[in-house]
Amino acid sequence: MLSEARAKNASMGITGHLLYTEEVFVQCIEGPPAAIAALWESLQRDDRHYELQVLAKGPIEARRYQDWSMAFSSYPSLNRFNMPGFFAVDKEGMNAEAERCAQADA
Ligand SMILES: Cc1cc2nc3c(=O)[nH]c(=O)nc-3n(C[C@H](O)[C@H](O)[C@H](O)COP(=O)(O)O)c2cc1C
Questions:
Q1: pLDDT digits (tens, 9 = 90+) for 33-45
Q2: Domain boundaries in the chain?
Q3: 2-105: CATH, from 2.60.120.200, 3.40.50.300, 3.30.70.100, 1.10.10.10
Q4: Distance 52 CA to ligand 1 centre (A)
Q5: What is the pLDDT of residue 50?
Q6: Ligand 1 atom at minimum distance from 69 CA
Q7: Over 70: is that where the pLDDT of 49 sits?
């Protein structure tokens, strides 16, 4: 799923971060508005999701995940394959990459 999403995101100019803890995904998606709207439609069509919610939306000064078509943070045990762009969460289920998503825009 992640490698397909990354390829599609790269082709649409989307970057971001996906956090997976306690059976919940929190995703930060950044890019051109039309690409974001198209991805949002895809996410809504995907029946692997339920209870999809937008937590915040708006213009940003600069991308927070410039280098990642979708960085992924989760439990260290999920990184058996040493995938690029994987960031282990700490005991609270957080890390610096995930926190960047919640930053107020400067
Ligand atoms: C938690 C989660 C996150 C996803 N994130 C992305 C993403 O960032 N980009 C993407 O293209 N697809 C993502 N997908 C897959 C989409 O839901 C969808 O299956 C895919 O974009 C194909 O959409 P389409 O049927 O409209 O072509 C994600 C799926 C899940 C379950």
A1: 999 999 999 999 9
A2: 2-105
A3: 3.30.70.100
A4: 12
A5: 86
A6: 8
A7: yes
Task: Identify residue 45 by its one-letter amino acid code.
Answer: R
Residue 43 Cα to ligand 1 middle (Å): 5
SS (H, E, C) 31-59: CCHHHHHHHHHHHHHCCCCCCCCCCCCCC
Q: Per residue in 63-79, pLDDT tens?
A: 999 999 999 999 999 99
Chain-wide mean pLDDT for the chain?
A: 94
Residue type, 41: E
CB 15 within 8 A of CB 63: yes
Per the DSSP assignment, residues forming a β-bridge with 71 are 17
